[in-house]
# Entry
Amino acid sequence: MSSNSSLIANNVLNPATMNSVAVSGGRMRMMTGTVAVADSEFDANTDIIRLCKIPSNAVIHNIIISCEDMDDGAHSLSDLGIWESGDSTFVSQATGTVVLIDAYLDNSTIFQAAVAQVDCRYVDGGVNGASLGNTTAGATVWENAGLTTDPGAKMYELVFSQKAAVSADGTGPFDIAFQVIYTVD
# Structure
């Protein structure tokens, strides 16, 4: 008895099915940057931190975050999700409903203490609240957002959103460094 990954299973089909370049042999791309966040910019429910734009057909392999302690305590709870690019509304389907404000982190405590190189894509890295699990490996951004079809050549944004009122430590700004590693087909 043996188990095959989806990549092998596609190859042993008769006839074989080609794997998407985004998951097999694709070129890795990276978005990397920093954000200096003042205490007053991320201390209230619904405050946001916009990280980067990413294509809808991207397969995100890693979302690596390093940050300083934001609140010297246990107040900050944040989500990391997929938003419409250049807009303050969440990615939504025709009904206008919220799809996944918390696609990658849900009620995360990531900003409650300093962290270095935490991968928020598949596992919570000890910061609580990873939404998508290992079963979503190889899924595109539009699939992670809960959409049923690719909207085409569309850019989305990865955005942190604050879910609680925070008593910031007053020493701001606090710094966030990020790397988003992905492939596209």
Residues 92-98, 125-130 have pLDDT under 50 and may be disordered. The beta strands are 29-37, 48-55, 59-67, 78-84, 105-108, 115-119, 155-162, 174-183. Helices lie at 6-12, 141-144.
